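User: TRAP transporter, 4TM/12TM fusion protein, Aminobacterium colombiense:
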Amino acid sequence: MRKLDGFVAKALYVYVLAMGFFHLYTAVFGTFEAFLQRAIHLTWVLPMAFVLYPLVPFKKDQLPDTTVPWYDWILAAASAAPGLYIMINYDQLMMRMQGVDELTTAQLILGTMLIVLLLEATRRIVGLPLVIVALVFTVYTYVCDASFLPSVLRGVPTEFDRIIEGMFLTDEGIFSSSLGVSATFVMIFLIFGGFLEKSGVGEYFMEFAQAFTGTAAGGPAKIAVVSSALFGSISGSAVANVYATGSFTIPLMKRIGYQPHFAGAVEAVASAGGQIMPPIMGAGAFVMAALLGVPFNKIMVAAILPSLFYYGAVLLMVHLTAVKDGLKGLPADELPSKKAVFKRLYMMSPVVLLVYMLLLGYTPMYGAIAGITLAWALSLINPTLRMGPKKVLEAIHDGSENIPIICTACASAGLVVGSVALSGIGFKFVSAVISIARGNSLLALILIALVSLILGMGLPTTSAYILGAALGVPALVKMGFLPIAAHLFVFYYAIVSNITPPVALAAYAAASIADSSPNKTGFAACKLGILAFIVPFAFCYDPGLILQGVLTENLTSLISGIGALTGIAFALTGYARGPLPLWHRTAFAISALAALYHHPLLSMASVVFTVFLFMLSKPKVVEVTC
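Assistant: Predicted structure for TRAP transporter, 4TM/12TM fusion protein:
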């Protein structure tokens, strides 16, 4: 990313600030019609890709540019032209009939320009994998009758001008609902994050985690888990979460005796899980609500138990590892006092207010605006954190400047969504999955999980989820799974791809801080986050795990989930009240998996058996020297 200075830097600051104010205005007073709102949003963001991101990424030992080359100014201007055309001719475009009216030469040129420039912007900001996926799907739509394709993939090709029409002039391509989420919810929540940072709420999350977990066995690791759960729920980015909290927690973990790869793995798992932790869950959850056509609070409620199980298992494994290895916590005098932190518990109120409003059924945008207002009001209490006009503008700017990666990723994912709609490959994929699975729903889930993991390698979670949802969810729904369970299943595997080698972005980011082997860190992260690989299968069969059953089903699922996470933690760490032999660990693992099986009697029996196994374990013998 370029580090601009002088007049250009000041002009860009004003440009980004104006974009933030525009989105705040539409959040408060209502957005424009969906297609127009998305066009304005992309037109505002896309030029930033060419101004801020160079043609060739900087090397580590290379100083960033402080100026923008002439050719990038041309590309920036060109990238704004298609959107400006839509704004100027919006009424006329809304009157045209898709598939009937011919495209004008100007529309054909501008649509082609938009696709090419969007792919180049995505390459610069997001990376090559998403560009390749989007390009393959788009080209397939044009050549899907080619003789070199397997017969199962062949179809009726779409003419070039109709591809441009579908991608450029409709809300089923680039300007689909995925970009709509970026243009509305994500933008406001990024600004909300800016206000949380400037008002001191984000810093309070870390202090809260330090005060209440820092002195316990393995305290720094627990700080990492708790702070990443709190911070990651707001940031929605695993890699950003790793760098935000890991730069503090990983050195502390290494200091008390955790091995570097394990310290990195703890941070990677905790940071990745922030995207499945309500209330915000990252941009993907907003896309999910849009695709399902349900209020966001339903997604939030469904995600509560699985996310708590996930973090509960990680915390327990961190604790057991610390006790097994004799790792102590940090001295109390190095940490904030619990009393002082508890007195400032009101600092949590912006997030509490957001959750309350979401549960009441208010839109996420109204909830975020309320949270922004309250965060600003809280800052006035503390003179050192008080947000005057300058800090308010900085919060809006700092939040808004993070939008390019999400906006370009969502727009490029729209190329895939549009290609699926135009080519009909989605139906072919559904047929292929059902054909291979031969009625076996478990095999179908495994196939979709593998597809989601592969799509998630090197892609942002939101993009990976959109692609997985476009291909995999229809197949799972046709197999009889609940739509919300199918979407959450794909979402989970898009997220855990961040910690799954060979391409595990969150684990690699943590490894760079921990100075450890990336692959060793990745495999350790997979072990710590094992529940994220298992629970999605369980909640597809057991609606109670996502609170979609009746009260008794939900309670049974809660108890069985607790039994499963404890059994898995004991089995993987090899420690309960003391070291466990292999047979004991195996019994814990079998009992944990049985607890997740959707049969109330078996689940409860497994939980009881897990308790019995725990009591059967021998306490660790502590040697006392005189």
